[in-house]
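Retro notes
What went well: the complex prediction finally ran end to end.
Inputs used:
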Amino acid sequence: GAVVSQHPSRVICKSGTSVKIECRSLDFQATTMFWYRQFPKQSLMLMATSNEGSKATYEQGVEKDKFLINHASLTLSTLTVTSAHPEDSSFYICSASSLTGDNQPQHFGDGTRLSIL
Amino acid sequence: QQQVKQSPQSLIVQKGGISIINCAYENTAFDYFPWYQQFPGKGPALLIAIRPDVSEKKEGRFTISFNKSAKQFSLHIMDSQPGDSATYFCAAKSSGDKLTFGTGTRLAVRP
């Protein structure tokens, strides 16, 4: 089945550091990638939709200057948490949909656990 | 109108029993209804999905029942096993739009 690889799986860093998370579709081309945030025992909250070659679309309340998204190719999207603070600690998950067809299944990565000290 | 309501919040089932999770929606434009399974520390994995032109879809021990008039759909896990213990999310989507997730159900299957 389709595989989405997310890296790193866990990051622990000091407050003020910028952290980059990568999301790769390994066996299909993804025109659209999604970035989610998930707090413990809660559902997934969509942060932004990333389209290859264009600017990401951010959900209401998500700071675009705080969470920088780049979707430079059909297999890679990155999320950079700039000047991270303890309140940014969370589980970040990406997903990707394949190139063709609407309502294609979204395949999720295994998430990145971000801990800001 | 974009919400998907999911119940119960948590569920305990004996091994071999049937696990039933329910979801309800308001947006009649939704035309794709997937279920995801998530283990701790992992991303959600697509389990099974249905479109509103059918009332039921079965894959192995997992069945989705869909009631278009009531705007409800449910996941049935037959012969539940301890390995099924996870958090289950229903979701819904309309063409060209984003997925809307339910709030999740934590399932525990007792040996």
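What we learned: The interface with chain A takes residues 31-32, 34, 36, 41-46, 49, 51, 89, 93, 95-96, 98-99, 101-104, 106 of chain B (CB under 8 Å).
What to try next: split runs per interface for comparison.
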